[in-house]
Specification:
This protein is α+β, with helices and mostly antiparallel strands. It is built from 2 helices and 12 strands. The chain has a domain of about 160 residues.
Length: about 240
């Protein structure tokens, strides 16, 4: 009888231990499930955040593209080409081609560039060169910034050839420019050249040359050259 009581108590203790162990395991499983759920929520929030950032980035890219398109729309450039026939004082006819590049922004002219091809010689200017025909003669005219009109008596081909002769080099650029202010404004040809020469016949260097040519009489008003230019000899073909 005493042994039976001990056995009964042992069975009760065993079930109690099993019950506590099971309950503890359930608590752990529940905690793990909660952790998994929490991790799932965090992952979901992270995905939503990344998606939001990606959308914002795409919106910014599209906005930048729209701004760039707007800038391109606000800025424009076009070119106009015209042909003339020029009759000199000697009755000789010249073919003239002009190219005008106009840069605009927001509907307003920002800059004009004029290229003038005269009998195989090309010059450029910031103001328009017009051709005026009177009888059997033609004249070149430009409008100055002071509102006055000026006749170009020395033709572009003559001024260009003058620069070639002075520089002894065909590699030249010639620009028709306005100099002076107000009533003293005038027009000159400004010629430049990068000429390859030899110093003392040994060392090759590039000499930067510049000359100003009077547009009324063709005289050289100024000839700029390096101080050592007198010691240099031509490398390129002499003219």
């Amino acid at each position: 009888m005493k042994k039976l009581g001990v056995l009964f108590i042992s069975v009760i203790l065993l079930f109690s231990i099993i019950g506590f162990a099971y309950a503890d395991n359930e608590d752990k499983n529940g905690t793990g499930s909660n952790d998994d759920n929490q991790e799932g929520i965090n992952d979901s929030e992270e995905v939503e955040l990344n998606s939001s950032l990606e959308i914002d980035s795409q919106d910014q890219d599209r906005e930048m593209e729209r701004n760039e398109m707007q800038i391109e729309d606000n800025q424009s450039e076009f070119e106009n080409q015209t042909h003339y026939q020029f009759i000199g004082e000697d009755g000789k006819k010249y073919e003239i081609e002009t190219r005008t590049k106009v840069k605009m922004k927001n509907g307003e002219v920002q800059e004009n560039e004029h290229e003038f091809n005269f009998n195989g010689y090309t010059i450029s200017s910031k103001f328009k060169i017009s051709v005026e025909n009177k009888g059997n003669e033609s004249r070149l005219r430009v409008d100055l910034s002071n509102g006055m009109e000026k006749e170009i008596k020395v033709l572009p081909n003559v001024a260009s050839q003058t620069a070639i002769d002075v520089f002894e080099n065909k590699n030249i650029t010639v620009v028709l420019k306005e100099v002076g202010e107000g009533a003293n404004s005038s027009v000159v040809y400004e010629a430049e050249s990068d000429k390859l020469v030899k110093i003392l016949g040994l060392f090759k260097v590039t000499a930067k040359l510049k000359a100003v040519i009077n547009s009324e009489n063709g005289e050289i008003k100024n000839f700029e050259k390096p101080w050592w230019y007198s010691l240099a000899s031509n490398v390129q073909e002499e003219i």
